[in-house]
Amino acid sequence: MQKPTVLFALLLLSAVAFAQGYKQPPQNVSDVLNAAVTPNVSISPDNKYMLLSEGVRYPPISELAQPMLRLAGLRINPNTNGQYRQPYAVKLSLRTLDNDTAKQIELPANAKVGSLRWSADGKHFAFTNTTANGIELWFAEVESGKAKLLKKIQVNGILGGFQWMPDQKNLLVYMIPNNRGQVPQRSVVPIEPNIQETSGRTGAVQTFQDLLKSPEDERLFEFLMTSQLAIVSLDGKIKQIGQPAIYDSVSVSPDGQNILVSKIQRPFSYLYPFQRFPKEVEVINSDGKLNYKVASIPLQDNLPIEGVTTSPRSYNWIPTENATLIWTEALDGGNPKNKVELRDKLMTIAAPFSESPKQLLTVQQRSVGQIFGEKDGLMMYYDYNRDTQKRRVFMTDYRNPSAVPKLISDLNINDRYNDIGSPATKLLPNGKSVISQNGDDILLEGDGASADGDRPFLDRMNLKTSAKIRLWQCDKESYESIVEVIDNYGGRIITRRESTTEPPNFFAKTLCPADTNCVMVDDKKLTNFTDPTPQLRGITKQLVKYKRADGVDLSFTLYLPPNYKAGTRLPTVVWAYPLEFTDASTAGQVSGSTKRFTSIAGYSHLFFLMQGYAVLDDTTMPVIGNPETVNETFVKQIVDSAKAAIDKATEMGVTDPERVGVGGHSYGAFMTANLLAHSDLFRAGIARSGAYNRTLTPFGFQSERRSFWEAKDMYMNVSPFAFADKIKEPMLMIHGEADNNQGTFPIQSERMFAAIRGNGGTARLVMLPLEQHGYSARESIDHTLFEMIDWFDKYVKNAKPRGK
Fold first, then answer.
1. pTM
2. What are the residue numbers of the active site?
């Protein structure tokens, strides 16, 4: 038999490659993906303008093919000296809040706008524009709507980019150093071995990704991360500050006279990302001269699980003082397992930094942040007890050493029903954010979670009495959230409102005074975005509540496809993500709202609705127990939760129990594989970007505190990889080849597929080129949806009854 010619062989290979290319989902799914993008909205700090930015929802795969260097936990595009794959806008427009006047901002051709920041006075906003060879810095004058390029500036956009100086007339910029030379090239031929050594040091080594691997990586990291700080005026004048360095954080004091900098130092690590590298924390002036040394922080390579450094951390300026630093220090050695009365202390020091730091107060549990009021020395601070999972909120006068902190909230972090909300904030003229105050009153914004779903609210709280008055709350037939509080009394707010029939739009509301019986004086619609996908309006949804066999309250949102006829039993998709809780009362709380406008985008499982499936969305899978041992019962609890959901949907006459599939992303994929391995509830599963062998995440996963060596049996028992021989139902695995999530290395899916195949099971592995933990390219999204729908059509929708 004659062999084919070389040309014929090449043509044959081309035809095969074309046939095996990216697949398209059904046309009705593509139509939804092609819908117009609704702009994002940002309100100016002076509350006069609304900035609308229009982005690109699904970039082409060619954009993902840009160069990428994986260095010290970062992904860097060496061509731009910026982060790899940053979201961007392609169109900007301004609209006044008081009338309908709008103006388009003229941008450069093929603009990729990112890092947009308002000046505190609302007169300007600055933004970056990413080109093929670097990152430009632009600013726009709001009054005229004119945008201008700041010339001779190339921004290092990996970590900082730029920020407004307190005078709001100049910008502090991370610039590419002048004359730094060419990017170091990796040698094709190795020039030295890659060596690591340890002796006697302990510390959890988590499964971080994209770490340094060689001396060449170190040189690349140092070259690309080094910035020259500079103060740049809006007329283009540049004043360089000190010498180039690797700045991982920079903050200017409220008076503009001091700059707090954190500079990464050698030696670098091959086991940890850049956040753990040694650093010098200093206060410098605008000439780069050292004013004060805050700390020399060593390599953080010996932290226990959930531990913190013993060096100063969370250092920043108090926004209402000219130049006063505040930071946190551990009193328990940084180890949460140590039994102590006090875990942390807050320290301060003020310019000119001639005195020793002073202790502001001690914190009983782990300090997790502070926020300051605009006057009267108000400071709210938070602590967290990892054993009870409770977060407390205290209030004090930080200027008064004798002030006794006042407890204003003490709740489990999962207790959404009783959450008091978060303080409404404002920008001071110096650009610092503070709690908005009106006399003795502050405003609290919250989600308003309840058994019937979220109803966002705005409360006024008196600081002296803690008494609260509700100023506004979303009604029961829509979902409306606060975007901006216009004044510090709460008399006028900007909201984003939607309902099951109305697409999201923005409104300006004038509220009645709190001591009157009326609710609202005015409700003005600011935008008129129309429904981009009217074909989805036939979809219905409802919140369904039920109980697990052990009495735990559960829920799911039941979605039904367009034109559903009551009583028809449908193939059903159960989609979930397990969460850990310390008690059943918080585990059963409802999250989200069924009153939101139904929209579907990306690779959402809700696209199954367009193919005639019912979807049990956000099916609660609580894992309840002592945080130290909760995963001992992980498998039993998720199986019991899944059974309860299927039983309820079957009882409602919606689900055909013979045709149910299960799916999830990340930890939801881990759940999916476990459900297929340990139950016969499902006909097939979809597991995206998951981890299946917990021995490959030996220093903990999710909230697990024990290492593999402390709980070997548990690590094995929750690993579906160890039970691959029990997975008899078909499982589709999808994974990004460039997954950057801690613990979900692509090898997890590759090894799981091999295990199922080797034991005679049915599985399909789809590796998406260039994609990370989530998928973004249009081609990848199309193909993912094709695979998901095709898999469940074959193994769920058209499944034969068991035993036949």
1. 0.93
2. 666, 739, 773
